[in-house]
C-alpha cells in the first residue's frame, strides 16, 4: 500500500499505521535538528471514523509541516524496511542536517483506542534517533500546535501547558465579554456537540475558567457514543442536520466540534423545525465584519484585512482545499481571516498589525471610542489560536462577538443566504486520476469530465459544481449548488454519475438522493 502525506498528514485504517508512526517520529527528530526548534507530532484522524487513525506534523511556529518535507514524509513512509537507513541518510544529506545537534519533539494524541500504542511508536522513533520528547498525552490538535509555538517563541506566545492555554484564552474572552450588555442566562447558553472526541473534556477544562460568562451544555462527550458517529462538525456540515444525542429546542444556539477539535460549525432549528447551518463561510463573515468595524473605530486605515473564501466588503481570495494553503495566503495580509466551509479556520495578525494594536491599546491620547476598539482588538488577538483552526478558541471568539454586538444566532444567519447545496462522496479505484486547477474549481483530468460537469451545470439555475480527490479519505468529493435544494441534489447526483463513469467508479452507480 502506498500512502501519501495528504491534506493533513497520513490517514488510514489504524492497523496499517504502526510503522508510519515510528517513521514520523524519526522524521520529526530530523526536522527538529534541521530547524533547531521543537517539532510537534499529533496522532489523530480528526473527522474520520474511529477505526482510522493518522498523524499530523507541526512545524516550529505551530503551522503545518512545510510542503518540501511532506515529500520526505511520503518517501519515508513508503520505503521498504531494509532501505530505511538509506532513506534517512538521503534526507540527512539533502538537508545537510547536523546529527550532533539536540532535537525535541512534542507528541499528543486524540481519544481513539488505537492512539495510545501509535503515539508510543512515534516516541520510539524520536528516541531511536536520540531526540528528546515531551508527551502531552490527550490534547486537541490545536492545543499541540499552540504548545509548539509557545515553546519556540520562548513563551512569548504563551505558556506551553494546557493550563497556560486555558488561562490565556479565557482571560481574553472574559475581557471581551465585559463589553457586552447584560445578558440573560438563556442568551449565555450554548449547546456543544463534542463529537465523542477530545474536544469535550478539553472544553470542560476551559469552561472552569469562564466564570459563568458562558453556560455550556456538552453533548456527545465520549461517555457513551462512538467517535464522529452521527455527530461532530463533519457530519452536521455534510448531512445538513443536527447530530444525534443532542436535545435542542427551536432557537437554541448550538455548535459541533470534530474529533480532534480543530473545526467548528454552528446551527439552530427554527419554530417550523427547519435546520439552519452556520458554516465556516458564515463564521468568516461574522469575524471579518467585526474586525472591519473595529478597524474603522480604531481609525486605522493602514491595516489590510483579508477574508479568504467568503464574500463581504473585504478582499477575497480562494485557494486549494487544506488550511495549510489558506494559512499561507492569509499570511500575506495584516489581518487574514480564513475559514473552510467545513468550519476549519482562524485569524492571522501580522507582527506589524499586532504591534499597532498594542500601541493603540496603551495610548493615552486617543478618544474613548478608539481606545475601546483598540482594547477589543487586543483581546481578540489573544483569544485566537493563530497557529491553526481551533474549535474552542473560535467558539470563544464567536460567542464574544455575538455578546458584544447583542446579536442572536438568527441575526447572524441573516447576514446573507447560502444557495442550497449538497456534498457527496464517490468511490473510484484511484482517486488520483482526478487532477484539478484554479483552486480545485476545474478538473483537468480525466478527459471529458470537466466538459460533462459544465454541460450539467448549464441545466440548472444559479448552479456551480466542483469535484476533487479528498486528501483525508479514499473518495472523490462532489460539491453542487443551485437555486433550490431539489436542483442542488439532482446536480450533485448527476455529477457523481459522471465521476463514477469517467474516473473509474467502484461498485454500483450512485443512486439519486
Ligand atoms: C483536514 C484539513 C482541512 C481539510 C480536511 C478535509 O481537516 O486540515 O483543511 O478541509 O482535512 O480534507 P479533504 O476534503 O481533502 O478530505 P481535518 O479536520 O480532517 O484534519
From TrEMBL:
Phosphoacetylglucosamine mutase AMG1 domain boundaries: 187-265, 279-406
InterPro entries in the record: A-D-PHexomutase_a/b/a-I, A-D-PHexomutase_a/b/a-I/II/III, A-D-PHexomutase_C, A-D-PHexomutase_C_sf, A-D-PHexomutase_CS, AMG1_II, AMG1_III, PAGM
Assigned keywords, A-Z: Isomerase, Magnesium, Metal-binding, Phosphoprotein
Gene3D superfamilies attached to this UniProt entry: Alpha-D-Glucose-1,6-Bisphosphate, subunit A, domain 3 (3.40.120.10), Alpha-D-phosphohexomutase, C-terminal domain (3.30.310.50)
The record's free-text note on cofactor binding: Binds 1 Mg(2+) ion per subunit.
Class of the enzyme per the UniProt entry, highest EC level: isomerase
E.C. code: 5.4.2.3
Known cofactor(s): Mg(2+)
Catalytic reaction annotation: N-acetyl-alpha-D-glucosamine 1-phosphate = N-acetyl-D-glucosamine 6-phosphate
Chain ranges of the Alpha-D-phosphohexomutase C-terminal domain: 444-496
Binding residues for Mg(2+): 46, 258, 260, 262
CDD domains to which the protein is assigned, alphabetical: PGM3
One biological process term in Gene Ontology: carbohydrate metabolic process
Pfam family, one: PGM_PMM_I
Occurrences of domain Alpha-D-phosphohexomutase alpha/beta/alpha (ranges): 33-75, 100-148
GO MF annotation terms: magnesium ion binding; phosphoacetylglucosamine mutase activity
Residue numbers binding substrate: 340-342, 468-472, 477
Record PROSITE patterns: PGM_PMM
Pathway: Nucleotide-sugar biosynthesis; UDP-N-acetyl-alpha-D-glucosamine biosynthesis; N-acetyl-alpha-D-glucosamine 1-phosphate from alpha-D-glucosamine 6-phosphate (route I): step 2/2
Active site per the UniProt annotation: 46 (phosphoserine intermediate)
Role description: Catalyzes the conversion of GlcNAc-6-P into GlcNAc-1-P during the synthesis of uridine diphosphate/UDP-GlcNAc, a sugar nucleotide critical to multiple glycosylation pathways including protein N- and O-glycosylation.
Family that this chain belongs to: Belongs to the phosphohexose mutase family.
Name this polypeptide is given: Phosphoacetylglucosamine mutase
Species in which this protein is naturally found: Nothobranchius furzeri
Gene: PGM3
Amino acid at each position: 500500500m502506498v500512502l501519501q502525506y495528504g491534506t493533513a498528514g497520513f490517514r488510514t485504517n489504524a492497523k496499517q499505521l504502526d510503522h508510519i508512526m515510528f517513521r514520523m517520529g524519526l522524521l520529526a527528530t530530523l526536522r527538529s535538528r534541521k530547524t533547531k526548534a521543537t517539532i510537534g507530532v499529533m496522532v489523530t484522524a480528526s473527522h474520520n471514523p474511529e477505526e482510522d487513525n493518522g498523524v499530523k506534523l507541526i512545524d516550529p511556529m505551530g503551522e503545518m509541516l512545510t510542503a518540501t518535507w511532506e515529500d520526505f514524509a511520503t518517501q519515508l513512509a513508503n520505503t521498504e524496511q531494509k532501505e530505511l537507513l538509506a532513506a534517512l541518510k538521503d534526507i540527512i544529506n539533502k538537508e545537510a542536517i547536523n546529527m550532533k545537534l539536540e532535537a525535541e519533539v512534542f507528541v499528543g494524541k486524540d481519544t481513539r483506542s488505537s492512539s495510545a500504542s501509535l503515539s508510543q511508536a512515534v516516541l520510539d522513533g524520536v528516541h531511536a534517533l536520540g531526540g528528546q520528547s515531551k508527551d502531552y498525552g490527550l490534547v486537541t490538535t490545536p492545543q499541540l500546535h499552540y504548545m509548539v509555538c509557545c515553546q519556540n517563541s520562548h513563551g512569548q506566545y504563551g505558556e506551553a501547558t494546557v493550563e497556560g492555554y486555558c488561562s490565556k484564552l479565557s482571560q481574553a474572552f472574559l475581557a471581551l465579554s465585559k463589553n457586552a450588555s447584560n445578558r440573560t442566562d438563556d442568551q449565555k447558553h450554548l449547546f456543544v456537540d463534542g463529537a465523542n472526541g477530545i474536544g469535550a473534556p478539553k472544553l470542560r477544562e476551559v469552561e472552569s475558567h469562564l466564570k459563568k460568562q458562558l453556560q455550556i451544555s456538552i453533548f456527545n462527550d465520549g461517555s457513551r457514543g462512538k467517535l464522529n458517529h452521527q455527530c461532530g462538525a463533519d457530519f452536521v456540515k455534510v448531512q445538513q442536520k443536527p447530530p444525534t444525542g443532542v436535545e435542542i429546542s427551536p432557537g437554541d444556539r448550538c455548535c459541533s466540534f470534530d474529533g480532534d477539535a480543530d473545526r467548528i460549525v454552528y446551527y439552530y432549528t427554527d419554530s417550523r423545525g427547519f435546520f439552519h447551518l452556520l458554516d465556516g463561510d458564515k463564521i468568516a463573515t461574522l469575524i471579518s465584519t467585526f474586525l472591519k468595524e473595529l478597524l474603522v473605530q480604531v481609525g486605522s486605515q493602514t491595516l489590510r484585512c483579508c477574508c479568504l473564501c467568503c464574500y463581504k466588503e473585504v478582499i477575497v481570495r480562494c485557494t486549494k482545499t487544506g488550511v495549510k494553503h489558506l494559512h499561507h495566503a492569509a499570511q500575506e495580509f495584516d489581518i487574514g481571516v480564513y475559514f473552510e466551509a467545513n468550519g476549519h479556520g482562524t485569524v492571522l495578525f501580522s507582527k506589524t498589525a499586532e504591534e499597532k494594536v498594542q500601541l493603540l491599546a496603551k495610548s493615552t491620547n486617543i478618544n474613548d471610542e478608539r481606545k475601546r476598539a483598540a482594547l477589543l482588538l487586543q483581546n481578540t488577538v489573544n483569544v485566537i489560536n493563530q497557529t491553526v483552526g481551533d474549535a474552542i478558541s473560535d467558539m470563544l471568539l464567536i460567542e464574544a462577538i455575538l455578546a458584544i454586538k447583542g446579536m442572536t444566532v438568527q441575526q447572524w444567519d441573516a447576514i446573507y443566504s447560502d444557495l442550497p447545496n449538497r456534498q457527496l462522496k464517490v468511490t473510484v479505484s484511484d482517486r488520483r486520476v482526478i487532477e484539478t486547477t484554479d483552486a480545485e474549481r476545474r478538473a483537468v483530468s480525466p478527459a471529458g469530465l470537466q466538459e460533462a460537469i459544465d454541460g450539467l451545470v448549464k441545466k440548472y439555475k444559479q448552479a456551480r459544481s466542483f469535484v476533487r480527490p479528498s486528501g483525508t479519505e479514499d473518495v472523490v468529493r462532489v460539491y453542487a449548488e443551485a437555486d433550490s435544494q431539489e436542483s442542488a441534489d439532482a446536480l450533485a447526483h448527476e455529477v457523481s454519475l459522471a465521476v463514477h463513469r469517467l474516473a473509474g467508479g467502484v461498485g454500483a452507480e450512485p443512486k439519486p438522493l
